[in-house]
Structures are given as C-alpha cells and as structure tokens.
Fold:
Amino acid sequence: MIKTLLLTTSLLASTNAVAEEKDMASCEDIAAVAESIMKNRQAGVPATKMIELTKDTPLFKTLTVMAYERTRYTTDEVQQRIIRDFTDDIYLECLTARDNDE
Structure:
C-alpha cells in the first residue's frame, strides 16, 4: 500500500508540473492519474490521505472523489477490472470534453 501511495504522489507531482506547463494535461496523463487513484482506492488507502494528496489540483481532487464513490472490492480479479473500467471511463470523458471544446 505504501509503494502504491508513493507512486501516486510521484505521478501527481509530475503530471501537475506538465499540466501547469501546457495549461492542461493530456487525456492520457489524466487517465494515468485516475488509474493510480483507483489503485489506491482498491488497495484500501483512506480517502483522507488521497484527498490530502490531491487537494491542490481541483481535477485530481474530483477524480479522487469519483474513485471513492465506487465500491472497493476484495478479489484481485475484480479490483483489476474496476481499475481498468474507471481509467477507461475517465479517458473517454476527457476525449469527449476535448472534442466538444474544439
């Protein structure tokens, strides 16, 4: 669990820097953050810790809330499916939003 949390912290920091540089992160970057957040959710990291990590970036905080609104499962197979589904959902939402902005 600590390894996953450290990886998320690192990913959030690097994606946040890219987002500031480009004014907006790519959908792939956002999906990667969503995946990391959901991995932490499924690993049992408390919501309070994830909110603390993501509170400075509204998009990441929103992703955290969305992840923690979903059920946490105990079997690895179901956890992997939920992580994949959440990541795909966020990626597709991002693409749709970007298409509508153009």
About this structure: The chain has one domain: 2-101. The chain has five helices and no strands.
